[in-house]
From TrEMBL, chain A:
Annotated Gene Ontology cellular component terms: dimethyl sulfoxide reductase complex; plasma membrane
GO molecular function, one term: dimethyl sulfoxide reductase activity
The name this protein goes by in its record: DMSO reductase anchor subunit
Transmembrane segments: 7-30, 36-59, 80-100, 106-126, 138-156, 162-180, 232-250, 256-275
Keyword Hydrolase among record annotations: no
Highest rank taxon of the organism: Bacteria
Organism: Yoonia maritima
Stored Pfam families: DmsC
InterPro entries registered for this protein in UniProt: DmsC
GO biological process, one term: anaerobic electron transport chain
Keyword field: Membrane, Transmembrane, Transmembrane helix
Automatic annotation (TrEMBL), chain B:
Keyword list, A-Z: 4Fe-4S, Iron, Iron-sulfur, Metal-binding
Species: Yoonia maritima
Listed SUPFAM superfamilies: 4Fe-4S ferredoxins (SSF54862)
PROSITE patterns: 4FE4S_FER_1, 4FE4S_FER_2
Taxonomic superkingdom: Bacteria
Domain 4Fe-4S ferredoxin-type: from-to ranges: 12-42, 73-104, 106-135
InterPro entries cross-referenced by the UniProt entry: 4Fe4S_Fe-S-bd, 4Fe4S_Fe_S_CS, ET_IronSulfur_Cluster-Binding
Signal peptide feature range: none
An annotated Gene Ontology molecular function: 4 iron, 4 sulfur cluster binding
Name of the protein in question: Fe-S-cluster-containing dehydrogenase component
Length: 290, 249
């Protein structure tokens, strides 16, 4: 799959932003006044910035408002609605903390639930696709949630929660990478089923339909990511999980905490790039490629 | 709405005969010709006369080599366009309702005024039937020439999809696949028409007819060797070189 920068930035930063909103919502930290203003502004910068970035890959972004209408069937539509609801509820909750210094627990919990729903619906956009066997698996939503709330805990300075969640997410990510490598081969789709010619013999792509490239090949057949996949997995694991955990175990220091957050963001950007770049779509079979 | 309608009484679609397709790409050209100036945005090309031409097509012809266990390989030309699936995953993923399946005849269409060009329907399609137009920023796909098949201003013989009308070898057939007595349904029954990637559960309406078994075995003919027993200087050189230590290819 083509690793569009807009979607990588969107999933990374909105994941972190909603993760932070979750911890703010459940009252893990209860800032008031100016401090609350800074906390909520940071969370909204990540969440809203990510959502805005996601509109850059649209062909017609000026019609994005229409995407709220098909919640009955479309995970993308549900994500839009969940994001707006979570952001509105948390804005009211945040305003209470900033201006009156009071915490309306009910609103906080509702907003936290909205944050979970937003990250889950985002992950389901990918998980639902039978055409992409690597994504069509329970590890996709669990990892999105783990990374979002682990990263949110890191931002919120929740030492124990961050260490536990990031360690679990790291182990799950390693499992998803290893198990995912076989999923396309075991999916039951191959050139024989794609062409229906398997009853005659082994099928090989002899000639593509055109001499140039096309949208399908640019969007779905991206082989560069697989060449360095193992190296990038090690880099992403070191930056996204191991470095922040070590920095958080060390005696607390603001520079270490900032470094932990920066390392984690770099690691998640790297693993999200791989999430797209390494992944094969079944349409590649028609081109004799993966 | 992007909810799928209940199964329609009519299921319009194509039957593509892989036995008779000669791979001439006439269907590709006629499809682009008709659809670039009719339904919706034109099918744009980028850098058409330059070094890296690319463009939007609703129908493309692949060619595959199939190697049986015994005997020579077969070349199969393979036209591919939207299969107008009964359980179309491209429709249900659409966030705006732009992508829909018609309840009256099962044709899958895109309402381009509502399309935001997110590309998710193309991700959901296993067959590569949808292409995002780089110029218009909206999703393009086969309309089954909905603006021809019901068009009262066209002569009757032209009221079929452009690809079917133009095919010089009669490899493309159009009709109602829900009607068991229709010509296309009978073709599918007689020739063992099949679905592409049935394991993905999309239930395509379009069917493919397999190449007929070869009735005459075609043995692979090799050229006769030019020389078995060399004579003269070259033969001496061959023997002399072979006598030296080292590997002979």
């Amino acid at each position: 799959m083509h690793p569009a920068p807009s979607v990588i930035i969107f999933t990374t930063f909105s994941g972190l932003g909603f993760g932070l909103l979750f911890w703010l919502g459940i009252g893990a930290i209860v800032p008031t006044g100016l401090s609350a203003f800074i906390w909520f502004t940071s969370a909204y910068a990540c969440a809203v910035g990510g959502l805005l970035a996601s509109t850059f890959h649209l062909g017609r972004p000026e019609r994005a408002i229409k995407a709220f209408s098909q919640w009955k069937t479309s995970w993308l539509s549900r994500e839009g609605i969940a994001a707006v609801l979570a952001l509105v509820i948390m804005a009211i909750y945040g305003a209470g903390l900033v201006f009156t210094g009071t915490r309306v627990a009910f609103l906080g919990w509702l907003g936290a639930f909205g944050a979970i729903a937003t990250v889950f619906t985002t992950s389901m956009i990918y998980t639902q696709l039978k055409t992409v066997p690597r994504w069509h698996h329970w590890t996709t939503p669990v990892l999105f949630l783990g990374l979002s709330f682990g990263g949110g805990a890191l931002l919120a300075g929740q030492v124990t929660n961050a260490i536990v969640l990031l360690a679990l997410a790291g182990v799950l990510q390693a499992y998803a990478w290893i198990a995912g490598d076989q999923r396309f081969l075991n999916s039951g789709s191959d050139m024989q089923t794609a062409t229906g010619l398997g009853h005659i013999g082994k099928v090989r792509a002899f000639e593509p339909p055109h001499t140039g490239s096309n949208y399908l090949m640019r969007e779905f057949i991206y082989v560069v990511g697989r060449k360095h996949a193992k190296r990038l997995q090690i880099i992403a694991t070191a930056l996204g999980f191991i470095a922040p955990i070590i920095l958080f175990i060390l005696p607390f220091n603001h520079i270490f905490a900032a470094l932990a957050v920066l390392c984690h963001i770099a690691g998640v950007l790297c693993l999200r790039w791989l999430f797209f770049a390494q992944t094969e779509h079944v349409v590649g079979l028609y081109y004799g490629k993966r | 709405m992007t909810q799928l309608p209940p199964p329609s009484a009519k299921k319009l679609g194509l039957v593509i005969d892989l036995d008779t397709c000669v791979g001439c790409h006439a269907c590709v050209v006629s499809c682009k010709g008709w659809n670039t100036e009719n339904y919706g945005a034109p099918l744009s090309d980028q850098d058409p006369y330059g070094a890296e031409p690319s463009g939007t097509f609703l129908n493309r012809v692949h060619s595959y080599e199939v190697q049986p266990e015994a005997g020579p390989a077969q070349l199969v030309h393979f036209p591919k366009s939207c299969l107008h699936c009964e359980d179309a995953p491209c429709v249900t993923v659409c966030p705006t309702g732009a992508s829909y399946k018609r309840s009256e005849d099962g044709i899958v269409l895109v309402n381009e005024k509502d399309c935001i060009g997110c590309g998710l329907c193309a991700w959901a399609c296993p067959y590569g039937a949808r292409e995002l137009d780089a110029d218009a920023g909206v999703m393009k796909k086969c309309t089954l020439c909905v603006d021809r098949i019901y068009n009262e201003n066209l002569p009757e013989e032209d009221c079929q999809p452009a690809c079917v009308r133009t095919c010089p070898s009669g490899a493309r057939h159009f009709g109602d696949l829900a009607d068991e007595t229709s010509e296309v349904s009978q073709l599918v029954a007689e020739r063992g028409g099949f679905d592409l990637m049935p394991e993905l559960g999309t239930k395509p309406v379009n069917k493919y007819l397999p190449p007929r078994p070869k009735d005459v075995a075609v043995p692979a003919q090799h050229l006769e060797p030019v020389a078995h027993n060399g004579k003269g200087f070259v033969a001496w050189l061959d023997r002399a070189l072979s006598a030296l230590p080292g590997r002979t290819n």
